[in-house]
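hey so i finally got around to running the thing on that chain from the lab meeting. sorry it took forever, my laptop kept dying and i had to restart like 3 times. anyway pasting the input first so we r on the same page abt which one it is
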Amino acid sequence: MVGKTANKKSGERVHRVVIGADSAGTRLDKALAAALTSLSRSRIKGLVQAGCVQADGATITDPSYGVKPGQTLILIEPAAVDAVPAPQELALHILHEDAHLVVLDKPAGLVVHPAPGNPDRTLVNALIAHCGDSLSGIGGVRRPGIVHRLDKDTSGLMVVAKTDTAHRGLARQFAAREVERAYLALVWGIPSPRRGEISGNIGRNRANRKKMAVVGRGGKPALTRYTVLKTFGETASQVECRLTTGRTHQIRVHLAAKGHPVIGDLVYGRSRRKGLKDLPGGVQEALTGLHRQALHARLIGFTHPETAEYLKFESELPPDINHLLINLALI
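ok and heres what got predicted. didnt touch it at all, straight out
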């Protein structure tokens, strides 16, 4: 086997391994460990399962996969990240704050916590700067204060714990499905019936580990309740979704599985270029200016873990989604 390593400007290390005839049939993780002595086999196994290895262009996530002679393997080792997120001053739209928790309105484009590809300038970095040492380690070093999260390009309401007691109390409410959460989405087409439930276990997409999917086996149970609020011809509709579970990308995956992906969702949706020329010019302009999925967490309600008071907050649609909504009404 021949192994070569190159460093990207992003800090990633790209390892290229060509399988020799004497290694045919060897487990993928074992073959890579033999060629890349700088990485342990357990580290390589984790990278394989995380979708960081390709064999002849296809992503392989099974460490026991048998390699073939002449096969080219590419392993992408993510850049190292700091053990503890650093405080960074970023603007936060805070709706409520007390000694125990913060309720804020997250803008689209802001990542919640540091991860490969987004090591800093996250909500966590901003919260550490805002709250100071009081947030340190609550709920975990890498995700201090975080009880739930929103996707990078989903905007809207989040609650963050400032004490261990608040974190435990909020986490219990989320686990018991006692937190009220409502989202507004603009979707292609009109879901039928206009009020209903979408269920189906959600797990990793076997063909692409970076995506989630409704899976027949494995995964975690997920249930989304939806109501169609407005329709725009047969082209699109405004839908309210309420979560009883909180799986990764749940609303986006469930709506796409039902055949009505969220507008602007390039991962689970479609570009909708076909037929776009038939829409009013204002709609076309609004779609062009929408650089993310049209999904907004508009409501959150929970019992304060210290005072036992029920708190409920609402958020107006951000300008980009509202602009699209106004123009869709012209259809």
